[in-house]
Amino acid sequence: MNDNSDITCPYCAAHELRLLGKLPDSRWFAGKHLEKQLPGGALYRCCSCRLKFRYPLHDADVYRRLYDNTAVSTWPVDAIRQDWELIIDYILQRLPLCGRILDFGCYTGGLLARLSPSYERHGVEINKAAAAFATDKQLAQIWSSLDDIPGELRFDIIIASDVIEHMPNPGCLIDKLFTQLAAGGALIITTGDADNYLWNRFHANWWYCFYPEHISFLSRDWLGHFSNARGLSIEHCDKFRYCHLSIWHRCLATALTYIYGYFPSAYLYLRNMLRSMLSRPDVTSVPGNGVSADHLFIVLVRNGKYP
User: Fold this and answer.
1) Which residue from 1, 16, 197, 200 has the highest number of Cβ atoms inside 10 Å of its Cβ?
2) Cis peptide upstream of residue 170 (ω within 30 degrees of 0)
3) What is the CB neighbour count within 10 angstroms for residue 25?
């Protein structure tokens, strides 16, 4: 348990926490190399609501500057992504002909571009360069924040794909997104599964929390806790594999995942040394992606009166 009474869960404010381990420092943030190393902090789990989270965090202005970094190639527009396939399939089933869609954290609009022009496509993106690209190339209406959306505008479906793990309080974000939903609307979330069995084995040495921009980590338990308190229904909470690997690639990645999980310092030291010999940047990621079905496809809908 955690004896530091100054640390509380960012969602439920509980003091009873479990320290899961130290997170590595990083010179990379959202695909951008940093001049100064960013402290990793530590990974905690709330014993009350089961949220996993990074602590301490930086000021909101620091994160805002880090995200608005002029990069438009961190997450490729043309990549084949399992989460996008699941989202598109769901939209086509729920709204087969048309509807108003909002992609929160749309980046360059790669997901919006996969929707037919019959849909009214909108996005929210803090990175100005990525937002400009989405506006020009995808012909979508993009805002820099939820507060910029006209007050009367409501959406049939709101998407938060690979974005809620970047939020200090995932509950606050879901609350805000639901205020933008039309009657009968649905909120789609994709994110890492904080109760994945390998994550529970390796804790702070799991690949998904290696990235300093990932600060909050959801699970089915946390979703149940949150949705019950808010009068929401979990229409879907399905596990999926973020990327598909060949059998041989998966075997190699699994072996490396276990090596990093048990010997993280040695793994990072040897890999950084090898990259230095090859005159390449330091480690930007660690093994684990695609090894298991460690992501969640979530659909939340109103169930009665939502606050």
Assistant:
1) 200
2) no
3) 12
Taking only the tens place, the pLDDT of each residue in 175-225 is 999 999 999 999 999 999 999 999 999 999 999 999 999 999 999 999 999
Q: What gap in Å lies between CA 92 and CA 99, rounded to an integer?
A: 10
pLDDT of residue 75: 53
CA distance 4 to 96: 52
Task: Find, among 48, 93, 288, 274, the residue nearest to 192 by Cα.
Answer: 288
Tell me: the pLDDT tens digits for 113-171?
999 999 999 999 999 888 998 888 777 899 999 999 999 999 999 999 999 999 999 99
- Which residue, among 104, 108, 110, has the nearest Cα to 85 in the 3D structure? 110
pLDDT, tens only, 1-35 = 555 568 999 999 999 999 999 999 999 998 888 88
- Could you please report the per-residue DSSP string of the chain? ----TT---TTT--S-EEEEEEPPPEEEETTEEEEEEEP--EEEEETTT--EEEES---HHHHHHHH-SS---SS-TT---HHHHHHHHHHHHHSSS--EEEEET-TTTHHHHTS-TTSEEEEE-S-HHHHHHHHHHH--EEESSGGGS-TT--EEEEEEES-GGG-S-HHHHHHHHHHTEEEEEEEEEEEE-TT-HHHHHHGGGSGGGSSTT--EE--HHHHHHHHHHHTEEEEEEEEE-SS---HHHHHHHHHHHHHHHH-HHHHHHHHHHHHHHTT-------S-TTTS--EEEEEEEE-S---
Cα angle 159, 165, 166 (rounded to 5 degrees) comes to 95
List domains and CATH numbers for the chain. Answer: 82-244+292-302 (3.40.50.150)
End-to-end CA distance of the chain: 33
Measure Cα distances from 57 to 31, 63, 82, 105 in Å: 19, 9, 30, 20
